[in-house]
């Protein structure tokens, strides 16, 4: 009996080992958006993609995670229907050949138990290159409507779109700098 009591006390005093938690991205709260140059500083084009999916797995105790996001590039919305037709055409994204853009993580960086940076690879227009997402904010909470845990983040990254074979406008002086913004919320999986 004494041995059983000591074993129980030892187990009770042991730290709880956290397990990875999976969150499915909520498509109604996840909108990757972008900013690109128009005529070398004349203005900035902005748009977003209306359909995306994916999941994130986070282990706060181990300070690890994984992320995969798939963006339906045909769902681009710039607020200008004619421009959207140009963006999805073979002049730019060529969605007939390349219907998806995909981000897959390689490494998470944490500050405390909060992720602050995600290193990974971004595939756009059939080209895969390293891309780091910086998280401006990250928060998990019990959603009172869903009655489930939800984690949300605001992230950004910058890249040269010509590196992905999307160089429309370069001959007219457009800068190839692209800023990617992602507002995302994930719902804890069952």
TrEMBL record:
Pfam families assigned: YceI
UniProt signal peptide: 1-18
Entry annotated with the keyword Transmembrane helix: no
Keywords assigned by UniProt, alphabetized: Signal
Lipid/polyisoprenoid-binding YceI-like domain segment(s): 22-187
Coiled-coil stretches: none
Gene3D superfamilies linked: Lipid/polyisoprenoid-binding, YceI-like
Top-level lineage group: Bacteria
InterPro entries: Lipid/polyisoprenoid-bd_YceI, TTHA0802/YceI-like_sf
Keyword presence, Cytoplasm: no
Name of the protein this chain belongs to: Uncharacterized conserved protein
Originating organism: Bordetella ansorpii
């Amino acid at each position: 009996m004494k041995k059983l009591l000591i074993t129980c006390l030892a187990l009770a005093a042991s730290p709880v080992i956290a397990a990875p938690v999976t969150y499915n991205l909520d498509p109604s709260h996840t909108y990757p958006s972008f900013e690109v140059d128009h005529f070398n500083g004349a203005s900035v084009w902005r748009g977003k993609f209306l359909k995306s999916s994916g999941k994130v797995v986070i282990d706060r105790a181990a300070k690890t995670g994984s992320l995969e996001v798939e963006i339906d590039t045909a769902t681009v919305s710039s607020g200008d229907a004619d421009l959207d037709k140009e963006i999805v055409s073979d002049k730019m994204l060529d969605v007939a050949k390349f219907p998806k853009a995909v981000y897959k993580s390689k490494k998470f960086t944490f500050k405390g138990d909060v992720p602050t940076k995600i290193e990974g690879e971004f595939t756009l227009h059939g080209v895969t290159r390293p891309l780091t997402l910086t998280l401006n904010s990250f928060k998990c909470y019990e959603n009172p409507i869903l009655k489930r845990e939800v984690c949300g983040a605001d992230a950004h990254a910058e890249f040269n779109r010509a590196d992905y074979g999307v160089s429309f406008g370069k001959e007219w002086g457009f800068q190839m700098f692209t800023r990617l913004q992602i507002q995302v919320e994930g719902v804890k999986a069952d």
